[in-house]
């Protein structure tokens, strides 16, 4: 308001574009070097998406397909679940990672190789 009139000066509010996805999906930013795709997004179901499990990529989501030594893995209820592992590995008790199977022939072969190369009686891992 100024002294010459009892007018109210307008205020301006910046418009923001609302990103909307169907119910149950999250709006996740896409990463591209193309200027045309800057600000682009895709709608993902982070409860079951193999590459965006539990959240959007880069913001807490997990790429289940990148879990070391996992052969068969899914995303269920926003967490990675490993069903099977590569030879020489077994699924841990929580179903969240593949650990070396001490009883497999692959693991035994590694222990022997380490012992014969280094003269070590205990397996230290590779």
How is this structure best described in words?
- This protein has 126 residues and is of the alpha+beta class.
- It has one helix spanning 105-118, and strands at 26-29, 41-44, 70-76, 79-85, 89-91, 98-100.
- The chain has one domain (26-118).
- The chain is elongated.
- This is Protein CPL1-like domain-containing protein.
- Pfam families: CPL1-like.
Summarize the helix and strand pattern as letters.
Answer: EEEEEEH
Structural class: alpha+beta
Distance between the termini: 74 Å
Low-confidence stretches: 12-16, 107-126
Classify the beta-strand content into a percent band: 15-25%
Instruction: Give the strand order of the largest sheet, numbering strands 1, 2, ... along the chain.
Output: 1-2
Give the radius of gyration: 26 Å
Helix percentage range: 10-25%
Rounded mean pLDDT score: 76
**Count of individual domains:** 1
The tally of strands reads 6
Q: What summary fits the major beta sheet?
A: 2 strands, antiparallel
What is the 3D shape? Answer: elongated
Write the layout of secondary structure elements.
Elements: E1 26-29, E2 41-44, E3 70-76, E4 79-85, E5 89-91, E6 98-100, H1 105-118
Antiparallel strand pairs: 1-2, 3-4, 5-6
A few lines on this structure:
This protein has one helix at residues 105-118, and strands at 26-29, 41-44, 70-76, 79-85, 89-91, 98-100.
Primary descriptors:
single chain; 126 residues; alpha+beta; two-stranded antiparallel ribbon; two-stranded antiparallel sheet; 1 helix; 6 strands; 11% helix; elongated; disordered C terminus
């Amino acid at each position: 308001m100024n002294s010459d009139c009892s007018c109210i000066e307008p205020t301006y509010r910046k418009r923001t574009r609302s990103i909307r996805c169907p119910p149950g999906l999250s709006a996740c930013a896409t990463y591209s070097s193309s200027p045309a795709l800057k600000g682009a997004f895709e709608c993902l179901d982070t409860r079951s998406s193999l590459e965006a499990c539990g959240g959007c990529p880069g913001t807490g989501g997990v790429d289940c397909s990148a879990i070391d030594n996992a052969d068969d893995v899914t995303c269920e209820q926003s967490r990675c679940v490993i069903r099977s592992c590569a030879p020489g590995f077994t699924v841990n008790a929580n179903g969240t990672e593949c650990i070396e199977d001490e009883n497999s022939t692959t693991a035994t072969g590694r222990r022997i190789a380490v012992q014969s190369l280094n003269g070590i009686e205990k397996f230290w891992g590779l």
